[in-house]
Amino acid sequence: MSQGEGAGCGAAKPQDQGWAWMVLLAAVVLQGLTLGFPCCIGVFFTDLQHEFQASNSQTSWFPSIMVAVLHGGGPLCSILVKRFGCRFAVMLGGLLSGLGMVSSSFCKSMSQLYLTAGLITGLGSCFSFQAGVTVLGYYFVRWRTLANAVASTGVSLGFTVWPLLSQYLLDEMGWRNTFLIFGGILLNCCVCGAIMRPIQLASGSLPQSAKPEEPESREEEAQLSNGAFPHHPTLQPHTRRTKCFHMLQKYLAFDIFCQNKGYQIYTIGVTWMMMGFALPHVYLVPYAIHNGVEEHKAALLISIIGVINIFIRPLTGLLSGHRVFTGRRIYLFSLAVLLYGLSNFICVISAEFSVLILYCVILSIAMSGIGALTFQVLMDVVEMDRFSSALGLFTILESITLLIGPPLTGLLVDITSDFHYVFYNSSFFLISAGLFMGLSFCALEKKNKLRKASKADFLDNPSRYQYSETSTEPKAESQSPPTVEYITSI
Fold first, then answer.
1. Alpha-carbon torsion 277, 278, 281, 286, what sign?
2. Residues 13, 19, 21, CA angle at the centre, nearest 5°?
3. Of the candidates 13, 311, 299, the residue with the CA atom closest to the CA atom of residue 141
4. Rg (the chain; Cα; Å)
5. Each residue's pLDDT tens digit, 89-136
6. Where in the chain is the domain with CATH 1.20.1250.20?
7. CATH topology of domain 252-457
8. How far apart are CA 429 and CA 276, in angstroms?
9. pTM score, two decimals?
10. Which architecture, in CATH terms, is 16-199?
């Protein structure tokens, strides 16, 4: 058993009761602190622009880096959890998040802010969030679906509280002191990690992460760690390449991406969608202030999205879990993406506060569907024994577009001086992604039905598909055997 497996991610004894519910409460707080935090950055957008004399594009790199690292650091977090355990990863993430925001309060340039609040805080949030989600899978078995749904309400609570708190602190003491206070608040991730105390594995049970390694893998690892074949010019690079390949295969499922059409379509669609997904969160508050809405009311818009998410997200999760939608959740997801994209046109029509409230209501409904279904759909298209590696590639690709989407749109706003392009861009990426995923999965489903029908027809009438053995030309003795073509399932 590795150190990480006995350090906080083992199967709880007993499960689904007792201390497991305290862990669930910690997970709710943890998701509010980590995933909910980036939503408040738009409150500081204008002040940071004035402080550092930065353009929209330069300022938007700060939240983009934070969100991209938060999503893209998954494989690194997986390695950390496997080696040291969930508790250590959560507490390390809390320390990094707090350190990043405290350091941000002393920044003298926007580039320093990219490093402190963007990279360090984003990486810390990634460790805390993903390790906190992982530990729920070991504390809960029977109530695992419920536990994940309840934990996700923490994101909605974060969306509600963070913007209002940010605007209040910003008015009272400025952005530097506010960032300093935020550093102390994010240190509470360490408290949440402390609640996820080390537990012993139940006798006779092993979690998926504690499966015995293959003999060849252990032998190669032993050879590498002990320095076997130190003077052999061929074997040592080969074993290193093999180990590197196994690591990539474990945490970045390129083979699944090439072979599984459903995973390929879904990953491409979500990656493209993320180019426009974060734009309203980054630019909604600056857009409202630019059009004469008071700062307090502008910050309230993000909180409205959070309040509605608290109620809609669990309902969406329960609805999508009904057996009627088994195998069809991708279409619900595509509809939510389309609704998200179409709702952006409301902001283009008018920037009055009442209209923006209507926009936030519709946006939050669509966002609840996307948030509740993202990982459920991924579980539908990928086998669970490869889910972790598929998730690693999935999060890295979406983090790339999350990183570049807001700055590119900010550059367009700088050139045109028109905030409407924020919502035009968001609508373009979301609507095209929703149509791509929905139509592609529809075509893939029809193709699979035709394939199954032809296979059933072959089994019912095999004589129709028999080929004549008679040949008009003599066969050469050295003739190669006929090529056999296999039709594999996706």
1. negative
2. 115
3. 13
4. 26
5. 999 999 999 999 999 999 999 999 999 999 999 999 999 998 888 888
6. 16-199, 252-457
7. Growth Hormone; Chain: A; (1.20.1250)
8. 5
9. 0.72
10. Up-down Bundle (1.20)
